[in-house]
Amino acid sequence: MRVRQLTAAAAALLLAAGLGGCSDDPGPAQTPAPVPVPADPTATTGDVGPADRTAVRDGGTLRWAVDDVPATLNVYQGSANADSALLAHALYPSLFRPDEHGRLVPDPDYLAGAESTPPGPGPQVVTYRLNPNAVWSDGTPVSAADLDAQWTALSGLDPAYGGPRAVGYDAIDSVTQGADPSEVRVTFRRPYADWRSLFGPLYPAAETATPAAFGRPLTGGGPSAGPYTVARYDAEDGTVSMVRSPLWWGDPPKADRIDFLAAPPEQRLDALDQDQLDIAPLTAAVDRAVPVPTVGATAAGASPSVAPPPAAAPEAAALALHRAESLPDVTVHRAAAASLTQLTLNAARGPLTDPLVRRALTRAVDRQRIADAALTPLGLPAAPLGSHLLAGDQEGYRDNSGAAGPGDPGRLLDEAGWMRPGGGGTRTKDGKPLALSMLVPAGSATAKRAADALTAGLADAGIAVQQVPVPADSFVGEHLAAGDYDLALLTWPAGPSPAIEQRPAYAKPRPDPDGVPEPGGNFGRSGTEEIDRLFDRAAAEPDQAARLDLLQEADVRIWELGHSVPLYQRPELVGVRTGVVGAGAYGFGWPRFQDVGWSEPETGRD
Length: 606
Description:
The chain starts with 7 loop residues before the first helix and ends in an 8-residue tail after the last strand. The strands form 9 sheets. Strands 1, 13, 16, 19, 20, 21 and 24 form a 7-stranded mixed β-sheet that branches. Strands 3-12-11-10 form a 4-stranded mixed β-sheet, covered by helices on one side. The protein is of the alpha+beta class.
């Protein structure tokens, strides 16, 4: 459940999260269109230090790196980022939380149970049984009033809220109290299978009940309902300090205090080495490591010249990873992030307007070769991704790459009129070479390795590729949204509700008032009515097995369309100090903050 808005600023925000932000994208709420981020490394399964509460002592302070002190803790506001989500999970309820396979399960600290009425002629009604012990930090019980206010704010029905809208809330017709204060009945205006994704995080009615309240930055001054409460929120000093909440009703938090400290990724290895941090996401510190400048030869008496570093140096990334793994009393944890890296094909430009060429290129991409190039240097299993919609460790995942079709891509290119010279080389048609541009995120060593493998593999098929490094702040607005590219390496967030979250990326472009197809969030610019119907049916299908079957069918059709090629999952790399328990790389989930702490006193600090 993560922030998704179709703007260049949002893309840059997600890029920062995806490349080593505070939590490597643990998941704020979803808004209508997912925003891709440039491709990035991947990893295997979740990797968290043992979370056995009996192994965690009471007391102590944890120092946790974030990119900065977020402008707001309300993940539904436009200024929210991944740091907002990480901190919010320590302070605010989520009625459901994802398990290690992306399945949403009730959080018993907040939810005693929930059930939906079966399909039928009447409206869908979900009955929530809130934990009767759950209270906000001002003593007010968590109640139907909080769910009602949040629905009103996020449904998009009241323009006074300034247009905030989150997927699913617009499907709700009413929120009322049930038989007692702990029972809440949510009635839907249309069937909504992903109702478990709603109300997480849940904010107090005091923060959402009016447009003015909702529009204010949330910086921890109001009521919260988590194991911790904010003691200090200092953007100037770069510190958010949380202490145990005296009204917390669940398992007592182990640590006395958690200090979230602003630490830019490029400084985190030094901070870990100098014992200034205990938990530090390291994905960006490794992937975007800058080579040490070299001092050039100079004439006698002249100032030394410094050679500028290259945009992205895999050698520097390898050195940074080696340093991270060599830090004393620090373990590097790795996990597959809930993010899917793919090669997107622009079906509205040049040779790729021909479906035969798109299908040929899809077959020509050697996903194993690319995964090897991207992941092996990081010490990760080179597992290629075979689904557009589901991560490899997500429930229902299936490799549907066979739908791209068997056989030599050269046959399809021949059929499309792109012929290869007798001695090999780039194919031509009507005297023009089959040459394509490919957007690559500037500064990412892993994306560079993947792009090099892609370029070499497509050259084997007679397709010439020119790599175009693009910075994050212009990747979406100036290129993807404008259609100024042929191929692009992207990373899409993967959440627990793919029928809703992924649909905009594959929805058939619709004509604008001038009759020009408007792609919306579909940067590949190809789609079909059938794919749209499959997503819509999956979104309304209450049976999980049947819903997954519909998603598999949609994925097969996307493969057949030649829309894009899934490549691999992005990783989280997190450095954790020896003695810290319950922390690491969380994959689909997020920390259970009350369980994170020390198995032994912090050396020299306790």
